[in-house]
Design goal:
alpha+beta; five-stranded antiparallel sheet
Protein backbone atom coordinates (compact mmCIF):
# COMPACT_ATOMS: atom_id res chain seq x y z
CA UNK A 1 0.00 0.00 0.00
CA UNK A 2 1.27 3.48 -0.87
CA UNK A 3 2.20 5.78 1.99
CA UNK A 4 2.27 9.56 1.90
CA UNK A 5 5.55 10.58 3.55
CA UNK A 6 5.26 14.31 2.81
CA UNK A 7 6.46 16.49 5.73
CA UNK A 8 3.35 17.81 7.48
CA UNK A 9 4.42 21.43 8.06
CA UNK A 10 5.80 21.82 4.53
CA UNK A 11 2.64 20.39 2.95
CA UNK A 12 0.36 22.53 5.12
CA UNK A 13 2.25 25.67 4.08
CA UNK A 14 2.04 24.75 0.40
CA UNK A 15 -1.71 24.11 0.61
CA UNK A 16 -2.46 27.08 2.85
CA UNK A 17 -3.96 25.13 5.76
CA UNK A 18 -3.24 25.22 9.47
CA UNK A 19 -1.49 22.16 10.98
CA UNK A 20 -4.10 22.37 13.78
CA UNK A 21 -6.69 21.02 11.33
CA UNK A 22 -4.68 17.80 11.23
CA UNK A 23 -4.21 17.72 15.00
CA UNK A 24 -0.66 19.07 15.01
CA UNK A 25 0.51 22.04 17.03
CA UNK A 26 1.09 25.00 14.77
CA UNK A 27 4.67 26.22 14.98
CA UNK A 28 5.61 29.89 15.20
CA UNK A 29 5.18 31.58 11.84
CA UNK A 30 8.31 32.63 10.02
CA UNK A 31 8.65 35.74 7.86
CA UNK A 32 11.20 34.04 5.62
CA UNK A 33 9.98 33.29 2.07
CA UNK A 34 6.48 34.44 2.93
CA UNK A 35 5.70 35.12 -0.75
CA UNK A 36 7.01 31.75 -1.98
CA UNK A 37 3.61 30.38 -2.99
CA UNK A 38 2.45 33.68 -4.50
CA UNK A 39 5.15 34.09 -7.14
CA UNK A 40 3.13 32.45 -9.86
CA UNK A 41 -0.54 33.08 -10.51
CA UNK A 42 -2.44 29.79 -10.52
CA UNK A 43 -4.56 28.80 -13.49
CA UNK A 44 -8.15 27.64 -13.08
CA UNK A 45 -6.93 24.05 -13.25
CA UNK A 46 -4.21 24.81 -10.67
CA UNK A 47 -6.77 26.22 -8.21
CA UNK A 48 -9.02 23.17 -8.65
CA UNK A 49 -6.07 20.80 -8.25
CA UNK A 50 -4.92 22.51 -5.04
CA UNK A 51 -8.38 22.15 -3.49
CA UNK A 52 -8.35 18.44 -4.32
CA UNK A 53 -4.85 18.02 -2.89
CA UNK A 54 -5.91 19.89 0.23
CA UNK A 55 -8.86 17.60 0.92
CA UNK A 56 -6.88 14.45 0.13
CA UNK A 57 -4.12 15.55 2.50
CA UNK A 58 -6.45 16.48 5.37
CA UNK A 59 -8.21 13.10 5.33
CA UNK A 60 -5.09 11.10 4.43
CA UNK A 61 -6.61 9.57 1.30
CA UNK A 62 -4.65 8.76 -1.85
CA UNK A 63 -5.84 9.45 -5.41
CA UNK A 64 -7.44 6.11 -6.32
CA UNK A 65 -9.51 5.95 -3.13
CA UNK A 66 -10.40 9.64 -3.32
CA UNK A 67 -11.71 9.26 -6.86
CA UNK A 68 -13.78 6.29 -5.69
CA UNK A 69 -15.36 8.55 -3.04
CA UNK A 70 -16.14 11.08 -5.78
CA UNK A 71 -17.88 8.39 -7.83
CA UNK A 72 -19.97 7.32 -4.82
CA UNK A 73 -20.84 10.95 -4.05
CA UNK A 74 -21.93 11.56 -7.65
CA UNK A 75 -24.28 8.56 -7.56
CA UNK A 76 -26.02 9.66 -4.35
CA UNK A 77 -28.91 12.12 -4.41
CA UNK A 78 -28.20 15.69 -3.38
CA UNK A 79 -25.22 17.98 -3.94
CA UNK A 80 -22.16 15.97 -4.99
CA UNK A 81 -19.68 18.16 -3.08
CA UNK A 82 -21.59 17.85 0.19
CA UNK A 83 -21.98 14.10 -0.36
CA UNK A 84 -18.20 13.84 -0.79
CA UNK A 85 -17.62 15.63 2.51
CA UNK A 86 -20.07 13.33 4.32
CA UNK A 87 -18.36 10.24 2.92
CA UNK A 88 -14.95 11.42 4.10
CA UNK A 89 -16.22 12.53 7.50
CA UNK A 90 -17.93 9.16 8.04
CA UNK A 91 -14.64 7.23 7.77
CA UNK A 92 -13.89 5.41 11.02
CA UNK A 93 -10.42 6.94 11.37
CA UNK A 94 -11.93 10.44 11.07
CA UNK A 95 -14.63 9.60 13.63
CA UNK A 96 -11.94 8.42 16.08
CA UNK A 97 -10.03 11.69 15.51
CA UNK A 98 -13.20 13.78 16.01
CA UNK A 99 -13.92 11.87 19.25
CA UNK A 100 -10.55 12.95 20.63
CA UNK A 101 -9.40 9.33 20.87
CA UNK A 102 -6.39 10.10 18.66
CA UNK A 103 -4.19 13.18 18.43
CA UNK A 104 -4.04 13.18 14.62
CA UNK A 105 -5.86 11.40 11.80
CA UNK A 106 -2.68 9.48 11.02
CA UNK A 107 -2.59 8.18 14.57
CA UNK A 108 -6.33 7.39 14.38
CA UNK A 109 -5.72 5.34 11.24
CA UNK A 110 -2.97 3.39 13.00
CA UNK A 111 -5.04 2.78 16.15
CA UNK A 112 -8.01 1.55 14.10
CA UNK A 113 -5.72 -0.70 12.07
CA UNK A 114 -4.44 -2.27 15.30
CA UNK A 115 -7.99 -3.16 16.34
CA UNK A 116 -8.42 -0.75 19.27
CA UNK A 117 -12.00 0.26 18.32
CA UNK A 118 -15.41 -1.35 17.99
CA UNK A 119 -18.49 -0.27 16.07
CA UNK A 120 -21.74 -1.43 17.66
CA UNK A 121 -19.77 -3.89 19.80
CA UNK A 122 -17.90 -5.47 16.88
CA UNK A 123 -14.17 -4.90 16.46
CA UNK A 124 -13.34 -3.07 13.22
CA UNK A 125 -9.76 -2.67 11.97
CA UNK A 126 -10.48 -0.96 8.64
CA UNK A 127 -9.80 2.83 8.79
CA UNK A 128 -12.03 3.50 5.75
CA UNK A 129 -15.03 1.72 7.32
CA UNK A 130 -18.11 3.92 6.84
CA UNK A 131 -19.88 4.80 10.08
CA UNK A 132 -23.61 5.53 9.86
CA UNK A 133 -26.00 7.61 11.96
CA UNK A 134 -26.96 5.66 15.08
CA UNK A 135 -23.70 3.69 15.24
CA UNK A 136 -21.75 3.57 18.50
CA UNK A 137 -17.97 3.79 18.22
CA UNK A 138 -16.04 2.72 21.31
CA UNK A 139 -12.51 1.97 22.45
CA UNK A 140 -12.19 -1.81 22.77
CA UNK A 141 -12.60 -3.02 26.36
CA UNK A 142 -9.06 -4.44 26.48
CA UNK A 143 -7.59 -1.17 25.22
CA UNK A 144 -9.33 1.19 27.68
CA UNK A 145 -6.71 0.61 30.40
CA UNK A 146 -3.80 1.15 28.02
CA UNK A 147 -1.43 4.00 28.98
CA UNK A 148 -1.59 5.10 25.34
CA UNK A 149 -5.20 6.25 25.66
CA UNK A 150 -4.42 8.04 28.91
CA UNK A 151 -1.72 10.00 27.04
CA UNK A 152 -4.14 10.74 24.20
CA UNK A 153 -6.79 11.95 26.66
CA UNK A 154 -4.29 14.42 28.14
CA UNK A 155 -3.14 15.62 24.73
CA UNK A 156 -6.67 16.12 23.37
CA UNK A 157 -8.10 17.66 26.54
CA UNK A 158 -10.16 20.67 25.55
CA UNK A 159 -10.73 19.56 21.96
CA UNK A 160 -14.30 20.39 20.96
CA UNK A 161 -16.38 17.34 20.10
CA UNK A 162 -18.68 17.93 17.09
CA UNK A 163 -22.38 18.48 17.79
CA UNK A 164 -23.30 15.59 15.49
CA UNK A 165 -21.90 13.01 17.91
CA UNK A 166 -22.86 12.24 21.51
CA UNK A 167 -19.55 11.66 23.30
CA UNK A 168 -19.10 9.90 26.63
CA UNK A 169 -15.46 10.50 27.59
CA UNK A 170 -15.58 8.33 30.72
CA UNK A 171 -16.90 5.33 28.78
CA UNK A 172 -14.66 6.22 25.81
CA UNK A 173 -17.49 5.90 23.31
CA UNK A 174 -19.59 8.09 21.05
CA UNK A 175 -22.95 7.66 19.36
CA UNK A 176 -23.19 9.17 15.90
CA UNK A 177 -26.37 11.24 16.09
CA UNK A 178 -26.21 12.24 12.41
CA UNK A 179 -23.69 12.87 9.69
CA UNK A 180 -22.16 16.36 9.60
CA UNK A 181 -23.19 19.16 7.28
CA UNK A 182 -20.84 21.15 5.10
CA UNK A 183 -21.09 24.19 7.44
CA UNK A 184 -19.74 22.19 10.38
CA UNK A 185 -16.26 21.64 8.96
CA UNK A 186 -13.38 23.20 10.89
CA UNK A 187 -11.45 24.17 7.77
CA UNK A 188 -12.11 26.12 4.57
CA UNK A 189 -12.63 24.08 1.41
CA UNK A 190 -14.13 24.89 -1.99
CA UNK A 191 -15.47 21.42 -2.71
CA UNK A 192 -17.30 22.55 -5.87
CA UNK A 193 -13.88 23.13 -7.49
CA UNK A 194 -13.01 19.45 -6.88
CA UNK A 195 -16.27 18.37 -8.52
CA UNK A 196 -15.56 20.67 -11.49
CA UNK A 197 -12.08 19.15 -11.84
CA UNK A 198 -13.39 15.58 -11.96
CA UNK A 199 -16.32 16.52 -14.19
CA UNK A 200 -14.08 17.65 -17.07
Amino acid sequence: MAIDRTPIAKRCKALGISPAVLGYTAKKETKRNRQTNMRKKLSEYGIQLREKQKMKFIYGVLEKQFYHYYELAAKESGVTGENLIKLLESRLDNIVFRMGMAITRREARQLVGHGHFTVNGRRVDIPSYRVKAGDIVEVHEKSKKSPKFAQIADATHGRIVPVWMDMNKEAMNARIVRLPTRDELDFEIEEHLIIELYSK
